[in-house]
């Protein structure tokens, strides 16, 4: 039958119903074949849909056939090869687009590594050669001797960037990806400054009064303070500088004993906000001689649990313009260095109460806020009841030589519950969470670092700054609450000094988890930084004070 555009219909033959006869009950000839009429617009839509399906099948075949993959999907048509470029304003087709539906459970995708090494260790352009050595950066011989004891080779990207600027006395925001060597990036130039200036007070005065350090590092956890303290001690030993670590959780007399332990008068002090505030209130500690202060892992320090203590510490340091300096009225202001891989929105407001944030310079690496390009990262959509069997299978399939495992949970109660389950399955592990007492936490992470136990179940307490070069697998049993938390957790593997890049596996359970996964997948496909990250303090001027 002819197709009539004016009538807006097309006639198609109608198949007879099953069991129907070909004629009438009287044996007379049946009616002519019936037809069903399809609207013209619907017919065109059906044709276009068929064309799109054929085109998609062709693209899927090309994707699976050509080149290495950037993103590997369970559904091959959604995989993305490395050569494919997604424009800035383009909206790519996402694997996680339908993950809020219950039928999506069981789906997964994996971000494939597209670089061989961490960005911090990336080779310089040929015209730059191998880059400067630590000696060529102007550091004093005593610090170079300390570096040899730590078996540190050439400077990483953030160290090449930060050491010259901080040696000039700039107050700065030092922003670099996790595992890139930020600890040495700020310790080396600041210790170099202490060695080049006199102490300022005789030993008798140091012994009689409160401890008056010339350098202070504020850190969010006692585990991180212990780790940075070990690095600082290795650097300060050949230089003759005393280092002290201040940890709370005990009686006030314990703080006094930590500060007065021989040799008296530490040149460098490391501590958590709570312990430092208590020592200041009891006048065991004075900050009038402070030449520099470091706020390490700034996003964690700006948490509401630390905010009050941090402001008290800042208020007692000689930071404000016009205040007496560490030695006298003519001395330069205390140098402030804010360090981290991610930064909170209220950072400038807090610092602005005590110092001029306009004189800060920003030192940031090119890979800041980007997903680690050398670490495979797998995202699995699961129902809540399926997470535990998936984790147990993952742990039991790993060999003893496969490296250490970090399992992240979002709450202390989940850490404890999961620990009991692992005990039932005879899986040896350690637990670390913030509700533990100081005595219970002491030594747990150090034991994990030594390799005594290869599985650590923890909260985000272990996601900031800690050296986890032995870890080769991170499991997000609970998906992190923010993109910043995901970056920090993923940064526990593939660090400078790691023997293998490791891997990250994330269980995606809730609808709000899917929102974050979509942002991660989009950034991965476009090779851009994660959205909503901030790495500046009120657009600091290029000149540091």
Which CATH first-tier class of the largest domain would you pick? Answer: Alpha Beta
Oligomerization status of the protein chains: single chain
Please report the number of helical segments: 17
Uncertain runs: 1-10, 18-27, 322-331, 538-545
The CATH superfamily of the largest domain bears the name P-loop containing nucleotide triphosphate hydrolases
Instruction: Report the sheet with the most strands, covering strand number, pairing sense and barrel closure.
Output: 9 strands, mixed
Question: Beta-sheet strand percentage?
Answer: 5-15%
**What overall geometry do the principal axes of the alpha carbons give?**
elongated
Number of strands: 18
SSE-based structural type: alpha/beta
Helicity range of the residues?
25-40%
The Rg value, from CA coordinates, equals: 31 Å
- Tally of distinct domains: 2
What strand order characterises the main sheet?
A: 4-3-5-13-18-17-14-16-15
CATH topology term of the largest domain: Rossmann fold
Quote the average pLDDT.
84
| Straight-line distance between termini | 87 Å
* CATH A-level architecture of the largest domain: 3-Layer(aba) Sandwich
Q: What is the secondary structure topology, with strand pairs?
A:
Blueprint: E1 9-13, E2 35-39, H1 40-65, E3 69-73, E4 80-81, E5 108-111, H2 141-149, H3 157-167, E6 172-175, H4 182-195, H5 203-208, E7 215-218, H6 222-239, E8 243-246, H7 252-260, E9 268-271, H8 273-281, E10 292-295, H9 298-301, H10 304-316, E11 335-340, H11 347-352, E12 361-364, E13 377-381, H12 387-397, E14 404-408, H13 412-424, E15 430-432, H14 438-441, H15 444-450, E16 455-458, E17 471-476, H16 483-490, E18 503-508, H17 511-526
Parallel strand pairs: 6-11, 6-12, 7-9, 7-10, 8-9, 10-11, 13-18, 14-16, 14-17, 15-16, 17-18
Antiparallel strand pairs: 1-2, 3-4, 3-5, 5-13
